[in-house]
Amino acid sequence: MPALTTHYLFGDQVLPELPEEIRQIIEQHRPLYHCALQGPDLLFFRCAVSGKSFLPKVGGRMHHEKIGEVLSFMKQYTASQKEKEEYPVLLTYFFGYICHYYLDKTVHPYVYFLTDSICNHHPEKTPHSVHVKIESQLDTVFYGLLEKRNITDFPVKALFTVPQEEKEIIGRMYSQLLKEVFDLDFDSREIAKAFDDMKNLNIPLFDKTGILMTASNILGEIFPKTLDLTAQIRPKRVSVDIANLCENCWHHPENPKLKLRKSVFTLFQDAKEEVVTAMKSTYDTLEDGMGVHFDTDLDFAGNIVSQS
Ligand SMILES: [Zn+2]
Questions:
Q1: 146: CA distance to ligand 1 center in Å?
Q2: Of the candidates 105, 210, 195, which has an alpha carbon nearest to the alpha carbon of residue 157?
Q3: What pTM was estimated for this model as a whole?
Q4: How far is the CA of 3 from the centre of ligand 1 (A)?
């Protein structure tokens, strides 16, 4: 996953490219759209501190398994509610989720490549902590690049406060989805709580004072494992070319022959173009009773989906 802010910025840039009809629906539900842009990452945050929920694991599975089935379920579920009040809420969520998928699968190969190269030089670091840290730094870079502001100004609370009714509608959709696609039982109210967990856990990660960052650096030196928890704190400044704006050569981790020079910014633009086409065709074919008509061969990491 590129992180919270990068996904937010992506959705924000996609919006003006969409036909008026779709844009109007999404604009009525902006905070929900911002959450939807986080895709299955939403589930990562449920009881993330206490570790008392299985939903974060499910969020992980949703990044690698049954990609086409999940998207097709969302399409059909949304279409089946066409005449009901829930419809615009479900459509907004579905479209935000599609955006997450496109950005993840396009940017992740670069993030995994960079993670591998850093871990080769720093065997003491865990790949997960390096991955998360890269994505936190990308948030800082993209917010500066696109909004010309410091990441500590990113207003998590204002952007991610979703009306209770909408959280419940999405909770019910997920509950059915997890039952039908993964054969898992989760109460819709439990899933709905992930929205507040995501918001509340992210507020301190965009810490203005820098105190958390200093504390995490010290903790990180003493206990490298704690980096897994603290790498998500957004740095105020990034001194390395983490977004590859200089266009150095890199390769797809699963396919080393595929060499690229694209910056993350270029990947971001590529994903934007592709997702707009996918969203338009999805809207036009919403009620055809079929699965989604765009390519779902890749998982959210940008790798070919293993059949399960
Ligand atoms: Zn993700």
A1: 21
A2: 195
A3: 0.91
A4: 8
Q: Report the C-alpha gap between 233 and 129 in whole angstroms.
A: 11
How far is ligand 1, taken at its centre, from the CA of residue 101, in Å? 7
Q: Three-state SS for 136?
A: helix
Residue by residue, pLDDT tens for the chain (308 residues) are 568 999 999 999 999 999 999 999 999 999 999 999 999 999 998 988 788 899 999 999 999 999 999 999 999 999 999 999 999 999 999 999 999 999 999 999 998 999 998 888 888 888 888 888 888 889 899 999 999 999 989 999 999 999 999 999 999 999 999 999 999 999 999 999 999 999 998 888 886 666 555 555 544 544 444 435 556 667 777 778 889 998 999 999 888 888 999 999 999 999 999 999 999 999 999 999 999 999 999 999 999 987 65
